[in-house]
Request: fold
Amino acid sequence: MSKTEIEKIGKQIVDAAFEVHSELGPGLLESVYEICLVDELKNRGLLVERQVKLPVIYKGKELQKDFFIDILVEKEIVIELKAVEVLLPVHEVQTLTYMKLADMRLGYLINFNVPLIKQGIKRKINGYF
Reply:
């Protein structure tokens, strides 16, 4: 997929997050926002997967520990969702780690527990994009 195509999908993700937040507002559980955002993205014709298993490989061996990507869009873009008072640096590191483990270049960290959703969206890039 080209960079231009990925960027177009990124814009749809941001727009879908705005739609969900304008409909629900802040204060709900992360799982509620996840279901609604997945629905919104699917309604836009995107391939969307929830809770995608991400195995951890250490020195060629798969560990008995898995991470889960909240939402994977078009097998290209990681979305990590939060519904917290404040995004912390650890949330950004978590998103970047998932992107690295999944070998994805673009990701979004979205916190729905904010008065204005634009305050809760962070675009993350892993390496050269």
About this structure: The chain has one domain: 3-124. DSSP finds three helices and five strands in the chain.
